[in-house]
Design brief:
Layout lengths: L4 H13 L3 H11 L4 H16 L10 H10 L6 H22 L1
Helix pairs in contact: 1-5, 3-4
Length: about 100
């Protein structure tokens, strides 16, 4: 099955629908096309924070979040991120299946 950029967009939309209302509103606001520079700036800061995750407060969690945010404006990132998400899901289900 071919992975497309639309698959990533659908995943992000599904995930944002599961967020609490306040956070969902903030994510939807940030995803608006008019917020391009704010989104790119936040993505770069998150990626840099993920790179320097050895420092206190900053963490590795910031890197994938920054890449996901950047993918909103760089379509070439959507397919690799969707493939990575599917791989993580498969691994998660495999691990959970062994415990049960």
């Amino acid at each position: 099955m071919a992975v497309t950029a639309e698959d990533w967009d659908a995943r992000v939309t599904r995930l944002s629908e599961k967020l609490p209302d306040r956070l969902k509103g903030w994510v939807d606001w940030l995803r608006e096309p008019s917020r391009l520079w704010l989104r790119v700036g936040a993505a770069i800061l998150l990626i840099l924070g993920g790179i320097f995750s050895i420092l206190p407060v900053l963490g590795l969690w910031m890197l994938p979040l920054g890449l996901a945010l950047l993918a909103q404006d760089v379509p070439g990132l959507k397919v690799p991120l969707e493939k990575a998400a599917r791989g993580i899901e498969r691994l998660w289900h495999r691990i959970r299946g062994r415990r049960g």
